[in-house]
Structure formats: C-alpha cells, structure tokens
Amino acid sequence: MIGQDGESGGCCPGLVTAPLDDVQAAELAKLFKALGDPVRLRLLSMIASRSGGEVCVCDLTPAFDLSQPTISHHLKLLRQAGLIDCERRGTWVYYWVLPGTLDRLSAFLATARTADVAAAATAEATA
Amino acid sequence: MIGQDGESGGCCPGLVTAPLDDVQAAELAKLFKALGDPVRLRLLSMIASRSGGEVCVCDLTPAFDLSQPTISHHLKLLRQAGLIDCERRGTWVYYWVLPGTLDRLSAFLATARTADVAAAATAEATA
DNA sequence: TGCTTGCATTGACGTCTATCGATACAAAGC
DNA sequence: GCTTTGTATCGATAGACGTCAATGCAAGCA
Q1: pTM higher than 0.70 for the full model?
Q2: Measured between alpha carbons, how far is B21 from B18 in angstroms, rounded to an integer?
Q3: Residue A57 and residue A86: Cα distance in Å, rounded?
Q4: A residues 68-107 lying closer than 8 A (beta carbon) to B
Q5: Which residue, A30, A86, A124, B103, could crosslink A95 as a Cys pair with Cβ 3.0–4.6 Å?
Q6: For residue B65, what is the DSSP state?
Q7: pLDDT in tens, B55-87
C-alpha cells in the first residue's frame, strides 16, 4: 500500500504523528521551498485549475510582469520538485500537475489525518 | 462560515479550484516558505507530535547541531507565519502548534478537496 | 545586591535565489 | 538552406536567507 506511515523511502509520518528525521525533513523542505514563492504558486494554480489539465507555456508567460527566462526558471524548479511535468508538442511545451506530490503534502500537513476525516464522516452518516 | 471558498480576505480557493491572485499567492508563499527549511520542519514536527501539545525550548535546542540563536531564529519565523505560538512560564518558554494554519494549507493543497473526501465517504456509508 | 541560567536580539558573513539580458536550441515555414 | 517563433540555458547581479559569536534581557537563587 502506498502512502502508509512509517516506511523510510516513502513519505511521511505526518507532521503530528512523529518527529521527522533529517532525511524526511530535507526531502519535504525541498517541496515546500518550491511552493514558497508567489510566482510559482500562481503558476501551479494556473496549471492545476485548468480544465483539461494542460497548459501551454505561451498561456502562462503573459500573465506575469516577468521575463520569459524567469518564468521558465520557475517552471523548471516546479518540475524538479516533482510537482508538475511537461512535454513538447511541435513548437509548444505543455505543462500539467502531478497530483500525487500535492496530495502527499496535503496529507502530511493535516493535523487530523485524512483517513480520520473520512472515518468521522462515515461514522456520522451511519449513526 | 469560515474557510469557505472565494472570500478575499480569507484563504483560499484551493489550488485546483481557480488561479490565485497576487495577494493570495503572496500570503500563501509566506507560509510555505516558512515550511521550506528542514530545521523548521523538524522543529514543527517535534512540537506538533508532542503529547500534551507543548514543548519547552530547552527540549528542542539540544536536538540540533546548531547554535541556540539559530534555533531561536527559526522558532521566531514559524511564529511570525502563524504556525506556532509561545508563552513564557517562569524561566522557560513553551511552544505549541496552531492547527488552523496547517489545516488551511492542507486543504489548499488537496487536489481532491477535503469536503469531497468526506462527502464521498458519507455517500459510500449510506449507500 | 550579585550571580547564574534560559532565551531573544543584534550585527556580520557567506551562500543561495530571483531576476534580467544575451544566447542557444528546437520546430515550423519560407 | 535561411528566417521566425517558442522555449530553455547561461552569466551576472542585487537582495534574501541561514548561521554564528557577542550581547541583552528576564527570572530564579544565594
């Protein structure tokens, strides 16, 4: 099963569950650092909220008051973090979100674990 | 109702729901930046996973190969981000987690919204 | 009062990072 | 082939950030 607590290579005990070791902390910090820039957050949300799931770079760049190399740089960082991926199709390059990484982070931050939320809802519904 | 989508002052549409505007992106980026350091992540997890919910600084500092001012600096950043808070009691200072901020971030990152997860569980249970 | 301990603040230093202009590369059209 | 357009990479620079030693401050104790 994937995403279970405790295995070393995978991720992660959950913030509230247990103290992180150095390796887990370093790995997670990379991801959060990638999210720790307003330009990258806007890029990510523009990609993630796109119906169809894909966005051409040519649709992203003009939305910012920044140079094209700067946008390309931020996209590269998001991609290296495993948050998005891309593919070239002819002249254009398309980006899309990798939801697995986002959901891992989301589950890590939740102080009431996602499983508990679902369990609570289930209990409430069946009561 | 708090935490609902769409209001400007509050937070946030959800990454997948709609593109962020500049203000929302800047606000969220501050939070993620605070999480984007392995030392701060370890500090936060040490505080969050503590049974009783509180930790004395004197229990945090020796866990790191860093100077006491450095730890104090990181705790200050976490506090300024609204992730933790602290109180002095006599000689010692105690820190605890503010779960609201963490849960906001968790909900923001979830590609399948938390409400949907609960709704799905409810539907499944009542079916 | 003076001493000691726990924690925060200050100031300085090296490193990382966001940004840009210039350039390189890839694909399409001429 | 050459030119044009879209995107990535390179090199440089200003500012942000993590770290430390030194210092300051608050609280307890002799």
Answers
A1: yes
A2: 9
A3: 10
A4: 97, 99, 102-103, 105-107
A5: A86
A6: S
A7: 999 999 999 999 999 999 999 999 999 999 999
